[in-house]
Every structure is written in structure tokens, then in C-alpha cells.
């Protein structure tokens, strides 16, 4: 085999945005010979993520990952982006970390001889986060700490507050990629970032009110209302913001809870206490990880009512996205309870989308699945659940739904809360 004839191509270009599909193709192989394709990236923490798959060249000596089935490895069958979503960490329980969205995530793809293990060809896919002309502006206005993304082009644009997880501090990939779709997005930190306390004794809803006001008043943001996208712990914050604050038209809650958790939430004279975990319901897996799925009590019970968010007060549209295999907590129960509350008050402006076999962290498309990892609130490694392929399909579906949801409800006809 003349290795110099072999080419690995990433189409349409080696450079793309992180949420875009690419075509991986190998040409110049010996017809019908097997080749192993490998993918590898190093995240901002220095953790290595990788996948591999075995393919067989066709009669013209080509492997097109968009058409050819993987015969074995990290995934099987025809999976155009399998080399990306199937990547797993070398060090178990690692979640891919991307701090700096000004630089792309580099995914190295290699073609190896299945017989000898020799490197035949390689190429690097540069998966970026910001389209050309986008502005990334660190925000320290009053108490607010975060980063604002403004898309290129002529505004004003619909505005969105992006809240991430309890231990996430500030995470920019989703916010920047969403801004590429024509939104002004404020990635808002609420603990452990810059001068925000790492272990706050309470959270103040006034802080989030300040952020909403800041975004609504920004000259690049069109009104009348803004959107919120949230996940996990911040899902509760999004529900509380929607319940108490004005100017919110559309809220996405991904695997959140309909009651307060972990930290007391204060608003004016009101204190919303967190649910008290039921420790006997927290189990260990065979591999020694914590399974928190049933660790929280039922928010609808009378004794837990003080922790429930009064979302019947909200007049925005809601999109609840829930994973049936979420082991962080019972997201399906919480979303269904939230929906029942809204329905019982004559409100039908919500949708609940359920993903079987998906886990807790529904991220942007092609983000490697995180089945387990360190949980900041409990201080140990826990199961997050999900199967890689189903989880990846859920991320792809949800990403399209989120964009459509915000486009539908964040325009000049939308009605914010009064």
C-alpha cells in the first residue's frame, strides 16, 4: 500500500462551528481492506477524550463515514458523527471542559492500518464556537458577572440569559453557539466566578433580576421580553425567575427541579428553603458511584410546599426537556409536576419533551456524553446516566427545538410577564 496516496479529508472544511456536522472521508486505500479511524481531543483541563471505529474500504479504496458502517469499536453502524459524540475520557468520570471559546476545540482524526497499526493519514478538525464578527464581552456591571455574546450583523436581536450547572461557574460554549443563531446571549455566573462566593450561604433573586434588566436594556437587544436557558440546578433558578420577575417571555428548563435545591433562595422578604435530601434513598452503584436519582423528596407533598416554585404565577412560555435515564434526580417527575401545576391554573403555554435513554447533561450537539462525574453539591463522583448514542440523538434534537422555541416566542409579538 502506497501510504503517500492515502488522504484523510474533513469536509466541507477542517474548520467549522462545534455544533456542525462534518464528513470524514479516507481515500486511496487498498479496496476492501480494513482501516481503523481514531479521534482524539485534549480539553482545557488537559484531559484526553478519544474514540475509535473499524471500517472496511469499498471497491474504490474509499471510506466515507457518512455512508459506511462501523464494524466495531466505540460505536457500530452508520454514524456520520460517531467519532465525535462517542469520545470518552481516558480518566473516568471526566466531563469535557471548555473555558476559552476564543479558541477552537481541536479534534485529531487518524486513519490506522487495521493489520499493522501504522498511521496512514491524519487531519485535524478545528471546531470553533464564535462565528466571524461575533463580540465576546466580559460583563461586570453592578453585581452581575458573566460574558455577553453579540452576533454579527444588524441588530437588535432577541436576548437570552444562559444559566449553567451548580458547579459550572461560567460555561460559554452553549451561550456562544446559541448567539451564532442570531441571539444576544448573556452567560451568567451565579457562584464561584471572579468575586462571586464559591460556597454561598444563600442566593438572591435580585441578582438575577439585575441581569434580566441589564439584558433587556442593552441597545443590541430587542424586546419586549427575553428568554432563559437553564440546566440542572439552574433549572430551578430559571423557574423562580419566571415566577417572580418581569420581562421574561420564554424559558427552557433542561433536567431541572420544580422546587428549590441545595441553597436557600431569597427574594425581598421571601425565603424559599431547599428540599431536604432523603439520605436513605441515595444508593451506591456496584462501581462505588453515588446514584442520587431518588435522593430528593416529592416536592408536591404538603411538607415540601415551601420549597416549590410558584410557577403558576409565570406568564411566559416553557420548554421542559427531560431525560428518562437521568440519575442525578428524577427530572421526569419534576417536569410533569410543573406541567400539572400550570395546567391546573389554566395555563397551556408549555411543552414537555422526554428523551428515553438520555442522561443528565444534555449539552450542545456532538459534545461527548458524560455518564458520571464529580458532583459539586455532594462533593463526590455520581452517576449521571444515559447511553451514548441515545444521548447524542437527544442533544441534536433538543438543540433544534431550543432554537425554534426561542425564535417562536422572542419577537416583537411576544408578551413578557407584567
- Helical content stands at 10-25%
Q: Quick one: biggest sheet?
A: 8 strands, mixed
**Strand share of the residues?**
25-35%
Between the first and last Cα atoms, what is the distance in angstroms?
A: 71 Å
**Separate helix tally:** 6
Rg estimate, integer Å:
23 Å
What would the average pLDDT be, to the nearest integer?
95
Low-confidence stretches: 413-418
Number of strands: 25
- Judged by helices, strands and strand pairing, the structural class is alpha/beta
User: What is the 3D form?
Assistant: globular
Q: Strand order of the main beta sheet, please?
A: 11-12-14-13-16-17-22-23
Task: Describe the structure in your own words.
The protein is α/β, with parallel strands linked by helices and 418 residues long. It is 17% helix and 32% strand. It is built from six helices and 25 strands. The protein has helices at 82-85, 173-179, 205-217, 233-244, 331-344, 388-409, and strands at residues 7-11, 15-17, 23-27, 34-42, 48-56, 63-64, 72-73, 88-89, 105-113, 119-128, 135-141, 144-150, 157-163, 184-188, 203-204, 221-231, 248-254, 265-267, 270-272, 283-284, 290-291, 317-323, 350-355, 372-375, 380-383. The strands form six sheets. It has an eight-stranded mixed beta sheet with strand order 11-12-14-13-16-17-22-23, with helices on both faces. Strands 2, 4, 5, 7, 8, 9 and 10 form a seven-stranded mixed beta sheet that branches. Residues 413-418 have low confidence and may be disordered. It comes from Pogonophryne albipinna.
Amino acid at each position: 500500500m502506497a501510504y503517500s496516496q492515502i488522504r484523510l479529508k474533513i469536509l466541507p472544511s477542517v474548520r467549522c462551528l462545534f455544533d456542525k456536522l462534518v464528513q470524514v472521508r479516507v481515500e486511496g486505500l487498498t479496496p476492501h481492506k480494513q482501516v481503523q479511524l481514531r479521534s482524539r481531543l485534549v480539553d482545557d483541563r488537559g484531559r484526553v477524550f478519544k474514540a475509535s471505529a473499524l471500517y472496511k474500504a469499498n471497491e474504490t479504496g474509499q471510506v466515507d463515514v457518512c455512508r459506511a458502517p462501523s464494524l466495531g469499536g466505540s460505536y457500530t453502524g452508520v454514524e456520520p458523527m460517531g467519532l465525535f459524540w462517542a469520545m470518552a475520557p481516558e480518566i473516568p468520570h471526566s466531563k469535557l471542559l471548555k473555558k476559552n471559546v476564543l479558541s477552537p476545540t481541536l479534534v485529531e482524526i487518524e486513519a490506522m492500518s487495521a493489520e499493522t497499526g501504522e498511521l496512514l493519514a491524519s487531519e485535524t478538525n478545528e471546531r470553533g464556537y464564535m462565528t466571524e464578527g461575533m463580540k465576546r464581552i466580559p460583563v461586570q456591571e453592578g453585581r452581575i458577572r458573566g460574558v455577553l455574546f453579540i452576533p454579527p450583523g444588524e441588530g437588535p436581536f432577541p436576548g437570552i440569559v444562559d444559566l449553567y450547572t451548580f458547579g459550572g461557574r461560567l460555561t460559554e460554549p452553549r451561550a456562544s453557539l446559541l448567539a451564532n443563531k442570531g441571539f444576544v446571549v448573556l452567560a451568567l455566573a451565579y457562584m464561584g466566578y471572579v468575586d462571586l462566593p464559591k460556597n454561598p450561604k444563600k442566593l438572591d433573586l435580585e441578582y438575577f433580576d439585575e441581569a434580566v434588566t441589564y439584558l433587556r436594556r442593552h441597545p443590541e437587544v430587542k424586546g419586549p421580553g427575553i428568554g432563559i436557558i437553564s440546566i440542572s440546578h439552574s433549572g430551578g433558578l430559571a423557574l423562580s425567575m419566571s415566577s417572580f420577575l418581569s420581562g421574561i417571555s420564554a424559558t427552557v428548563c433542561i433536567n431541572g427541579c420544580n422546587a428549590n435545591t441545595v441553597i436557600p433562595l431569597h427574594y425581598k422578604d421571601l425565603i424559599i428553603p431547599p428540599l431536604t435530601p432523603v439520605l436513605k434513598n441515595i444508593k451506591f452503584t456496584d462501581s462505588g458511584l453515588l446514584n442520587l436519582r431518588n435522593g430528593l423528596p416529592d416536592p408536591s407533598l404538603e411538607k415540601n410546599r415551601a420549597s416549590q416554585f410558584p410557577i403558576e404565577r409565570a406568564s411566559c412560555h416553557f420548554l421542559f426537556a427531560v431525560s428518562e435515564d437521568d440519575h442525578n434526580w428524577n427530572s421526569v417527575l419534576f417536569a410533569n409536576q410543573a406541567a400539572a401545576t400550570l395546567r391546573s391554573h389554566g395555563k397551556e403555554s408549555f411543552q414537555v419533551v422526554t428523551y428515553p435513554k438520555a442522561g443528565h447533561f444534555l449539552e450542545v450537539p456532538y459534545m461527548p456524553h458524560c455518564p458520571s462525574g464529580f458532583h459539586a453539591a455532594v462533593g463526590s463522583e455520581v452517576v449521571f446516566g444515559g447511553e451514548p448514542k441515545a444521548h447524542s440523538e437527544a442533544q441534536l434534537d433538543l438543540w433544534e427545538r431550543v432554537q425554534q422555541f426561542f425564535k417562536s416566542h422572542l419577537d416583537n409579538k411576544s408578551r413578557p410577564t407584567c
